[in-house]
Amino acid sequence: MPKYSERKLVPYRPDQMFELVADVGKYPQFLPWCVGARVRSHIGNDLVADLTIGFGPFRESFTSRVTLEAPERIHVHYENGPFKYLRNEWRFIADPRGTMIDFYVDFEFRSFILQKAIGAVFAEAVRRMVAAFLTRARTIYGAPQLAQRQEVKV
Question: Membrane spanning segments where (predicted)?
Answer without folding.
Answer: none
